[in-house]
Input
Amino acid sequence: MDDGEPDAIVGQAVGRVAVLAVRGGRSGEVRLVRAQLKGAKLHWRVLHSVSPPIDDARHDDTIIIGSNDMLAKAPQKSESPNAQCLRRFGIED
Output
């Protein structure tokens, strides 16, 4: 998420719903988020901002945390024809 910092998301999940504090690595802003699994999709909604963006040289970008989104697994990429041909002849790419 965002810049991938290990402590960027903290919270508590109960069943298929989680309440999370999400810190944007680019801006330093912290937002309270409600995430809910519905089937294979994660519905993600920002409830409000907990702290404003940090104004310093390290945090000089806008926040990129989605505000009301649905996340889904990307479909697996199919193997390219070239890779299929190589595999058929026992050649690993």
